[in-house]
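Support request, please re-run this one:
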Amino acid sequence: MSEAPARCGRRLLRVSAVQEMGAYRVLRAADPGGADTHPGQFAMLAAAERWGGGEHERPYLPRAFSIARHQEQELHFLLEDVGPGSRRLCELTAGDGLWVLGPLGRGFTAPSGRRRAILVGGGVGIAPLAILQDTLEGEVAVLLGFRDLARAQGAALLRGATLATDDGSLGHHGLVTDLLSSELDRDPDAVVYACGPAAMLEGVRAMCAERAIPAQLALEAGMACGFGACFGCVVPRRGGGYLRVCLDGPVIDAADLERVDEHAGSPA
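Re-run finished. Output below.
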């Protein structure tokens, strides 16, 4: 008898565990038989119950979240309470139902040749770098930036990270792009993988363009569908036209971007 095909369509999963990580939560959902996940892909999430607000409990749209890990038949997501939809997801506990559609989108491409990987993350945008780190071989530099000490606890999601905080409460007092500049001065023969707030991603894009260093940026944008039908998540393509973050990305070669717009980054 042949095995059942792996599933990536919308399905009802059960929360298996929730881990507090400073200002963040790692939500884990059992996904037996789920499709293989490539680092950088995402899923559309919705709570199975009370997924709505206002006087008439008007339904929320599903929320797009990068997949932080997919191991032992579990999906892991890094959450931060930044609004009503993410707040409801942060309220979920073990046993609660979770609607999941995914994995969706295009992920990261492994480094070519002997180039060393540098992972650059900011805030909740560190999530896809965790599953990426799990797949990379050889020396990998991990540079993470956070607003404050509470959010910097999210760095535990990755191994061996060098940290920067906006308020100087931990690690370098300043921007994570300061750390990237120093790292590229030391070893310019690298490829950069980044996900985080739009301003950070634009800084990474511009720095890598100036130094002719390849970079792959995982963008985030508000989505209504997650699979290219609504055109609500477009970003400008270098040379004209647009790219859909959900279908052409979320991981996009930095050289293909004219710029990183403010709506195309994760919360800080």
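The two ends are 49 Å apart (CA to CA). The longest helix spans residues 198-211.
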